[in-house]
Amino acid sequence: MNKSQERSTDSAISTPNKADDDLHNVSDTFYTSQRKGSHVFRVRLDATGFTLQRESPSGVIIKEQKVKICDIIGARCMRMKKSPRNLAGCACVNPGTPAAGSGRKGTPSKCSMASKEENATDVGDGSAYLYLFAYVLKKKSLRSSLHRERTVLTLRFRSFDTFEDNMREADRWYRALRWQLHQTLEPIFVESMGEPRRRRILVLLNPKSGSGNAREVFNTSVAPILNEAEVPYDLFVTKHSNYAIEFMSTRRLDEWCTILAVGGDGLFHEVINGLLCRADWAQVMDSLALAIIPCGSGNGLARSIAHGYNEPYFSNPVLGAALTAISGRTSPMDVVRVEAKNRVMFSFLSIGWGLISDVDIESECIRMFGYQRFTIWTLYRWANLRTYNGKISYLLADEAEEPLETPLLQSEQMRKMQSSRSCTMHIDKLSNASNHRSMEFLPQEFEDVISLETSINQSFRSRCDSWLSGGSRRSCYYSISESIYHSVADDSEFTEPSISTGTKLEQGYPNFGPGSSLPGLDEPLPEAAGWLVEEGEFIMMHAIYQSHLGIDCHFAPKAQLNDGKIFLVLIRGGISRPHLLSFLYNMSTGSHLPEKNNQYIKVLQVRAFRLEPYDNHGIITVDGEQIEFGPLQAEILPGISRVMIPK
């Protein structure tokens, strides 16, 4: 990772002093009981995470293991429902207390949102349990790639005679962990008044994204992560095209700290444009972070973020994106202002004209193939190649320009909090042991202290009773003639009324957002300003400002989230089909771009450009969405938004 991608810690809530460190650094002695004998462990929680040290009878440390604080997302205090003979043999006891008996682990009872169970369920045992949820980087073999595995660290407290006293001790550890976790978050993610806790996030979900499984993805993979991390959220389902634009441009947003788009790049495009349609766009963009769960066909932004911060992607894209959404860390992200003939819009991914745009839009007819539709239609278009005539003018970027390293400054104005009707998760009955799961344990001396789960385990996770749950009493989905999904809930149940749902993007929204430094689209470009021109016959023009166009399309290897550059790729007419096929084939690895520009392929780093097609037909796309055909101009707006990044 280069220096421009290193995460700054300057934006943490505060720099804890030594007294705070001492107060929230906790440690104790734990014992395990096994057939081969008991073992003693020293467990310590500090700012770096959990340290587990196995000690010999003489007090010498034999082995040590670390669970990093950046991998831990949350914890729960609870009590077992099983009888004492079924309890695990891991306990926190005073020196000299006998270790617990061996046996199988029981299933924990449900816990409240306050992370502890108030009422005892088994008077025969007074132990309290602390479960910590972490997602650690693992490698199955030397040849395999890194991936994240769900880890549950279980600590049993039984130093005292009563459950209440033991729960009080477990809760002390829980609060110490929560304090340590909050130190890793930027200020906008924590309530500034009262007891520190995570602020709410707004979830916008497009049920028709990609292959149409966004609801299932959220229920099974995203909501459990939010529950484990104790991140409250409000969930809204998009009802029609441009719903997210209407929502983001008209609603009060001061209650939320993050906008999480569950869908494809098209939904994220609507979110960006809705925010920049507001009169208070500058304040809102400064106080909100944006995140995405990849459920679309391309998923270029999610792939670019994972690639830029070395986060595993292909093993489980949704898991990595969900963890990124709750990481509490952000990075500035460039946005491009696009001016067309009749409207202004904002783009975060790419602008295309020619071959790639043709593939993107025309392949909609085989959408059922998912991401493979792009490969199929690329081969079809390669065999039936088109050329387009036009002129492309551009301003070269400053080569010495460096990416921004600090996040956007938080607005000093206090956010006025308002009440809302929550669509948050509810903790339900935990699944029984019959659920299918795969368990992997550490070496025997650690097996009673921490267990590694290699697949999703419904234990410790609540069932979704949200607006997306198919079995929920709160929601219902039905298809009308246009196959558009609607929520039963009326708009008035949430916040202020929005503008008419019949209003379409083409009819225009208020033109707020950053202004342009370029001449008007109908005005000539001044040669003295350094504009350069490419004119003639083109196979394609594609401008991109993220590293990836899709999950396996590494289109601009040098692009970063906030480098202030547009990577403009031009392919001239006359290129041979084998040369073009090599270019298309190597896009998956990022080796398709020439080291030096040649007569057919040019890669230009620009800060603005203008496209003037000479033909009266063709396809132009912005962030994968087709817009009206005609001239347009675009310019980079460095770092005006902030996006969630991995810890």
UniProtKB/TrEMBL annotation:
Residues 1-24 are annotated as: Disordered. InterPro entries: ATP-NAD_kinase_N, Diacylglycerol_kinase_cat_dom, Lipid_Phosphate_FormReg, NAD/diacylglycerol_kinase_sf, YegS/DAGK_C. It holds the Pfam family YegS_C. The keyword Metal-binding does not apply. Keywords: ATP-binding, Kinase, Nucleotide-binding, Transferase. Residues 196-342 form the DAGKc domain. The keyword Transferase applies. One of its GO terms (molecular function) is kinase activity. PROSITE patterns: DAGK (PS50146). PANTHER family: LD11247P-RELATED, SPHINGOSINE KINASE. This is Sphingosine kinase 1. It comes from Drosophila arizonae.
